[in-house]
Every structure is written in structure tokens, then in C-alpha cells.
Amino acid sequence: MSPTLNLAVPFSSQLINLFAAIMLLLGFAMLAQRRIITLINLFTLQGAVLSLSTLVVALTTHQTHLLWSAGLTFTLKVALLPWILHRLIRKLSVKWDVETLINIPTTMLVGIGLVVIAFNVAQPISQLSGTITRATLGIALACVLLAFLMMITRSKAVPQVIGFLAMENGLFFAATSATYGMPMVVELGIALDVLVGMVILGVFFFQIREQFDSLDIRQMERIKEE
Amino acid sequence: MNFYALFAQLLELVIALLLAPLLTGWVNQCRAWFQNRSAPPLLQTYFTLHKLFHKDALLAHNASSLFRAAPYIIFSCMALASAIVPTLSTDLIFSPAADAIALVGLFALARIFIALAGMDVGTAFGSLGARREMLIGFLAEPALLMVIFTTSLISQSTSLSTIVETLAHREFVIYPSLAFAGVAFTMVSLAENARVPVDNPTTHLELTMLHEAMILEYSSRHLALIEWAACLKLFAYSCLGIALFFPFGIPEAADPASLAVAGAILVFKLLIGGFLLALIETINAKMRIFRAPEFLGTAFLLAVLAMLVHLLLEVGP
Amino acid sequence: MLDMLPLDQIIIAILGWLAIGGIGIIVPRNFTLISRVLFPLGALCSLAVALFALTAIVATPQVAILPFGLPDLPFHLRLDALSGFFLFLLGAASAGISIYAAGYLRPGEGTAPGLQCLLYHFFLASMAGVLLADDAYAFMVAWETMALTSFFLVTSDHRSAEIRRAGYLYLLIAHVGAVGILLSFGVMAGSSGDYTFDAMRTFSTEGIWPTVAFLLALFGFGAKAGLLPLHVWLPEAHPAAPSPVSAMMSGVMLKTAIYGLLRVCFDLLQVQHWWWGVLLLVLGLASAIFGVVFSAVQSDMKRLLAYSSIENIGLIFVGFGLTLVFKSFDMPLLAALALTATLYHCLNHAFFKSLLFLATGSVLHATRERNLGKLGGLIHRMPWVTWLALIGVIASAGLPPLNGFVSEWLLLQSFLFTSGLPQGYLNMLLPVAAAAVALIAALAGFAMIKFFGVVFLGQPREAKLAQAHDAGRLERLGLLWLAAGCILLGLLPNVVIALLDPVTNLLVGSGLRGAASSQGWWLLAPISEARASYSPAIFLGGILLFTLFVFVAVRRCYHGRLQRGPAWDCGFPQQTGRMQDTAEGFGQPIRQVFSPFFRLTREHPSPFDAQPRYRVVVEDPFWSWIYLPVARLVERGTRLVAFLQQGRIAIYLLYSFITLLTLLVLTRG
Known about the structure:
The complex is a heterotrimer. By secondary structure, chain A is an all-alpha fold. Helices cover 75% and strands 0% of the residues of chain A. The longest helix of chain A has 29 residues, at 184-212. Chain A is globular. Chain B has one domain. In chain B, α5 (124-155) packs antiparallel against α7 (176-192) and α7 (176-192) packs antiparallel against α11.
């Protein structure tokens, strides 16, 4: 009747589970956040937790290429991208509160529903994986879905971009915990894509702002066919 | 009936009654340090209580017998609550009488009585306070219940003694669900104990009051009992947090030596807890009243998330 | 008489009710006889029913066949543990209500007292008939009698158009539900056409028909119980009825619907699917949240209680759904736990909701006001009603040490076991359901505080409230009986669980009694003491002792001097009763937080109004989502059919001619 608890799980797996839980917590915190600067800081924190987790996996499974992954993640997600975002914010003189299309408690409720779906979808898949931390696949999928939700329910452009980046965080976490990382080539490719995407999006922000005098995406409805 | 169990229970009750005002004093002291001003003496709360007990009670003309009885009932509820939370030992006489759900019910009972007392005299402030208190309460209570459910799912029991024993005496395992539950619990205890960012306990502006507005009409011994009950509530919540999330050092047996050690560990943990509470209060600003449901809603959903994370990560297939 | 079978004893008590009603109609205007003799006699009959039902719960099932009914289907009656429990509920609650009604009747008001006596006692008798019926015909006869008598009771004050409208809506939905129940019985009777319950128990368990029967029964019984979305009659009918009738309907009649569904699900249908349980769970949660949110924003005290009834029925259905889920996964002990919680909550609700409705009856009699905005400060003029209503409020909010807490505690305990279920989604969704139940319980506390605080505490909002009088002796007796029931049910949970043991054994095949009572009468530990335990006696004793101790200690160490003075007015000298919170004001946080649930119409004053006015009307969204579209559809359909009615004889003859021709052509082959 009562399910057994995994007490014989080694310490490193517990640590990975803890990091997974913190990633999910940060995903929810970003969903519930109202201020842009705090949003970027939370995203930075998520990147740091991600690189720490990759480091732990690298050390326990003795795969050196994961060490490079961890380093790359750290440089990109904790140092470079937040710096770009902060600079973007300063240049656009954007300091508003995040406006949401549906109010925050409803967003959180939908988030919980997404978490339940993600957990249930991931369970049969994670049975197939052979790694020690396969239960975290559900959490990674949940992070991706939550980031997607953040992209949908925000009305300004910068939080949407952060949602896009957080999605990539979730995917990376899924890759490291379930399959011990992707081939290095794939990883470098994704990292480059993300970086280039950021630069292009930054350019777009200025264009949008010039066209509509505002970064509110609801203004973009003006360009639809009447 | 185990003599030591009875002794441990009574000792817990007495320590709760005596130390609760000291905890409040310590929190005020830490807050003053952070705000770079000199603090009132550590024993100030005791002096205030003594002064209040001496005064004549002044009641409004239309205050009813409910108004007069409420402080005693609230005080008894809080004292009973501090007796139930295991702080010095898990072998307590009262532990089979009330489990964690009953503890939440006890807090709710006290809240109902104080809200009714607030509405009794029929002034605008009293009912304002009662309405706001119920607004906070209706979200805080389920959040607390869900935090307790998370720990119950881990320890397969809702009895507080069993929960503490399971979490303290098993080998050290990191439970991520407890991380979520811990954050949710902190948010709930800030709301329930009327602390910044939900309510400012030192405000004297009636329109910004939540908790204080309900007790505006009370004076002398009634006010003293309510203030003491508020200190006891903070003490009970702190001990509950310690018991659920940092239970190391609470012994199973109740012999005098281990009780003394447990007492010292408890005082140490409470000192750190009070310090952190003062830190949180200083960093944050009080939020608008209608952000409070959002705040508590977040706590509630975090607690639900903790249960889901437990079911996913910590229960083997 | 005492050595007869319990079934015969109960039948005699029912005949007693019928006789009392008959006497009442013979002398319809003899007020003293009716209120001082007949109603108390009715209460005695109720007490007798309750006692005999208690003995029947532990006895073996008894059947009886009455000499009237259809030619080939005489009335079958059956008294088993389930019927016995609900008869106990009926008897115990109605004893208090009848005594109260004896004191509530006032001469010269509305319908003749004799007619009310007849309808009331026939109502009681028909409910007992529903609980005893063992074949579909007897059941439907009793069911319809119940609906009719309660309709007439609801429209007692038939001069008011609003009350007539409420009664009409009630009758309409009751009959729509009855059609559902009849169809369900029809499906279960199957091709054999034998409508006795015994025959239905052998109904085949294959295929889709059990599901069809279940869904029809859910529709029918759900309409009577007030389950979403068939609940719209409840907030109209309960306030319209006189208070003893509201108490009877809310406390007892809704439970007969629960009885019916329990009988169909566990006794007549031999198979249960887990998704039935999930459906019930979802509907129950939706009803509960809807009910409690709406009750928190009402301005009419009886509507507030009616919506609160919807919430409690929702919680009962949540427990019911859990029982079905556990039963379908073959976990009899857990199913017994959930079923015990459900049945306990039925009993608790009967007591505390009746108590609250009767208290509003006293308030109504004393002040002639139902609107919360015109009440207040009644604790000074009506102390008996206030303190007894406080017991009802604490029980209704689900607080220890009273009875509401015990059933909620049991329900939450059964949720904690759901992580052992084999179904993945269910495993995860049920903790979320537990969170919803906790939220509902907290909101119920909010609504009850609003009710008690606005009506009884504070200052009077109208000058005429100074003439309010307290409840009469008989009214007090009725209220005391129900309050004592609340307290005892809260303090002696093991006794009630021992009582429920045969019922759960009958329905799900297991009982809690073995584990529960091994610790003695004062400790409730349904599974094991290490797992969960609760002792209401120690709780209550602890609080009372401590209160007394502190009171005495403060008096001895300090003093007990007291002075009276004006209330704190913050420098504003003219505090009036209208400056305290109104009912709308108290409910405003809920209105704001849960605004998607409501349809609000608001009228704001502007600075230029000579007489500024603020109005807010909260409406049930189900009217515009479901009922009005359905009504419009029906109207359109009937208009199309009305096209056939041309009013000329030639056309009607033409119809007959066409029919004749068609039949001739068709039967040619």
C-alpha cells in the first residue's frame, strides 16, 4: 500500500535531484515575477544551477566533455547573455513591471497543470533511460513547458526572449541528466544559434521600438489585415 | 503513562510560555541592529505584559461577552499549539491527541475568534481588520496544510512526533520537495505572524493594519493575553519550522540529559531563526494589501508543487 | 411493541406521522392543538424512528411486502444497514426541527397551520419511504410525494411572486431529475421488466449499460442533491421556504439523494469503474468551490446558507468519488475510510446546517429581516440564539473540537493514501484535489465568519433591531438538541465509526471499526496510532481547562477590574452603526480574488448625484451559460410545434386524414 522511498540513492543523485527541484522552483519564480531586473537575475541563477548540475554529472560519470559543457554554459548563460540583456535594458531604458495577459494566480494554476502533464508524459520515457537521474526528465520537460507559458503570457518583448532562453535551459538540463550530454558538435551549434539569435533579437527590439514607439507586442496587432 | 513523557510535555509548555516573549524581543533587537538604531531591552516584552496586566480593563459600551472571552480562548489555543509541536522530545503525552491537521485547525480556531472579536464592537476598523485577516487566512491555512501534507507523504503519517522522528533519525537524505515546502512555509509564517512583507507589526496607522486593527479595542489584561498569544504563535511557527525542516537534535527518549541538550539546541536554532526573520523583514517592503493574495497564492501553489515533486522524484517506480 | 422487528416499529412510526398529518387537516385552524400537541408528537415519532434505526443498523436486513401497490408489484420495503443509518439521520435531525417548528408556528400567518402540519408530516413520511423502498415503484411514489409536499411547503407564503417562482423552479428541476432516476431504474431492470431491487441486483455487469445507468442516476440524484450544474434551484427554494422547512430540506432531503446514489452505485450495480469516481470527484470539487465562493458574497443570510449547502454536498460527492476510486482498484480498507468520511459528513451537515437555518428562523421572526445589511448586534438581545448559532458556525467551518472537523479530518486522511494508486495521472491529480479541499474548508470559514459576525456581532444597523426578542422555549429546545448533536458527534467519533461499520461493510466490504476503537472512546485513530490520531475530548478539555486556569490565575495575581467607555473613533465623533462593514464589504476580497466566477452588475454613485446609490448584484453565471440557452431552445422548439396548432377544424381533420392514409400505405406490406 505505501510506496517505497529511494533511500539507497547515492549522494550525487540526490544532489542532481535537488538541482532539478531548484530549476523548477526558479522556473515558477520567473513565471510569477513582476519586475524585469529580477527576472534577468533569476535567469542568471538558473544558468548557474544548470552549470553546477552539469559539473556534478561530469564529475560522477567521469566524462570530460561534460566539463567543457559546464564551462560553456557558465560563460554563456551566467556571464555573456545576462550582460547583453542588462545592456539592452539600459539602452532601451526599459524598467517597467512585466505586464501579463492573464493574471498571475491563473498563470500559476496553469503552470501546475503543465507540471502534472509533463511529469506524466515523461514517466514512461524515463523508464527507458539508463542513467541514475532519469526522474529529472519530467522536471526538465516541465521547465520547458513553463518557459513556453511565460513566452505566451507576457505582453512585452524582453520577457518573451527570456522565456525562449529559459526553454533552452530546460532542454539542456534534459540532455545532461537523461543522456549525459549531447555530442559536442550539437552543443556548440545550439550555443551559437542562441547567441546569434540574441543579437538579432536585440536589433529587432530597436526596430520595433522605432516603428511603434513601444515594445508592447499587443501593438503589433496593428499590422494585421483589416 | 511515562513519567518522563509527562515531564517533557510540561517542560515544553512552560518553556514556550516563558521564552516566547524573549523570541519577539530578540527579533526586535536584530531588526534594530540592521536598521542601525539602538534597540529596546531584550526583556521589553515582559515589561509590557506586566504593565498591561496591572491596568484596568476598559471595554466599549457595547462589547459583548464574546469580546471578553475571546482573549482567553485565543491564548489557550496558542498554548495548546505550542505544547503539541515537538521541540524538546518526540515522546509527548499530548502527541496522540492532535496531529498536524488538528494543529492547523487549532490555528484556524484562534483566527476565527480573533476575527469575531474584531467585529464585535462594530467600529469600522475592527471589521476592516477582520476582513483582511480572513483574506490572508483563507489562503495561508491551505498552504500550511499542503506543506504538512508534503512532510506527511514523506513520513507516511500526519502525527507530528512520527514526522519529526522520520525526518530526524533516518540517514541524511536531501528531499527536494522539502526545499519547495520550506519556501512555502516561510511565506506562510510571514503572513500568519503579521510580519513584513505582509503586515507591519509596528505600524500605528489604522489603514495599514491587518492584525492590529482587530485588537484595537482591547486593553489591559485582555490585550496582554492577546500579545502573549501572538508571541506564542510566532514561537509555535518557528518551532514547527524547525521540527519539519531542521529536526536534527530532537531526541526520541525523554530523559533529563537529552532534554537539556535538546533545550540548548532549540535555543540556538531559535536565535538563528529570529536573526533570519529580522533580515527578511529589513530587506523587504510591505506590499499592497491586494498583492497579499498573490503572495499567498504563490505559497499555496509552491506547496502543491512540493507534493507533486515528491511523488515524481522521491517515490520509486 | 418493543419486541417487534425494527422494520415494523419504523412502519408504525411512519403511520404515526401520517396520522398526525391527518389530524392536522381535520382541524386546520386549531393553533394550540397543532403547535403544542401535534408537532411535539411528531418529534417523538422522529425520536422513535432514530432509536429503532440504530438497532436496525447492526441487525440483519429485513424485508416486508405491503399489501398495496401495483397489481403485480406490491410495495417492497427493506431495512438494512444503509437504510438504517439514513433513517437515524432523518429521525435525529427531524426531532430537533419538529420541536423547533412547534415553537416557530405563529397564529395568523400565511397558510393554515393544519395544512402545514399535514404537509410537513407527509414530507417526513415520504422521506422515510424513500429510504425504505426496495422496488422502483415504491421508490418513485415516495420520491414524488417528497417532491410535491416539499413544493407546497416551500410555497407556504404563496402570496409573494418571488416565492412562487422559486417553488416552480424547484418543482421543475425535481421532475427533470425524477425522469433521470426513472430511466436509470428502467435500464437496470433490463429486459426482464422486473422492477424490484433484488432483480436489479442481478443486472449484468458487461458493456455500456452499467455506465448508462450510473450516469442517469447521477443526473437524477444530482439534480435533487444540488450538484453543479443542476444546483440553481437550491439558492432560490431554500430561502423562500419557512425556516424549519429549509432546515429539513437542506439537512435531510439532500441526503436522501446521496442515499439513492449510494444505493444505485454500490448495491444495485455490481461493478464500478474508476473513472466514475473521478467524474464524481471533479463535479464535487466544482460544486464545492462554486458554492463556497458564492456563499461568501451573498447579502441574504438564507441564500448564504443555501450556497454553503451546495458546498457541503460537493464535499460529500468528493468523498463519494474517492470511495468509488478506491473500490474500483480493490482497496477495501481505504474505500471504507473514504466512505466513513462521506457518511460522517452527511450526518454532521444534517445537524449543523439545520441548526444554522433554525437560528436564521429565530432571527427572521424577531426582526423580520433577511438582508444582512439590516441586521447586526443581535448578541445583546438574543443571547440563546447567538451562542447556539456560534456552535453551528464553528462546526460548519470545520474547526476542532466539533463535528465538522472530524469528517474533514477523515476525508483529508483518505487523500493521503492516494499515492499508492496504480494510475499515473490519478496519483498526481489527487494531491491537487486535496489542496482544493483544504482551500474550500478555509473559504467556508470565511463565509461563516461573515454570517455570524454581520448578523450577531457589531452594532445594530437598523433602529428597530432594539425590539428583537430571543427565541421561545420550544425553539430553544430544538436548537439545543441540534447543538448537543454537533458537540457529541464531535467528541465521540469512535462511537459514530462503530455505527458506520456495518454500513461500510455492506457497501464496500470492509470496515474501520477494528482499528478505530482499539484505543478507547476518546482517541480517534482510524488506521493506526502512529499514522494519525486525534482526540477531540482532550482538545476540548485542554482548551477549557487552560482558559479556566488563566482566568483564575490572572484574577489572583493581578485583578479583574473593569470599566466601560466609548469605542475608539479615531477622532471622528459620530460613529454610527452604518460605519461598520456591510455584508458586501466583507465579501469584497473574495469578489475581487474570484471575479471570473461571477456575473456582476454594479451601479456606482457619481459625485453629482443628489441621492448617491451603490448597488452590486452578483448573479449565477450558470443561468446565462446553460439555463437561458436551454430555455430559449425549448421555446423555439415549442413555437415550431405550435405551428401545428392552426385553430381551424379543417386542418385538424386533414391531420387525421393524412395519418390514416399513411397507416394504410404502411400496413399494406
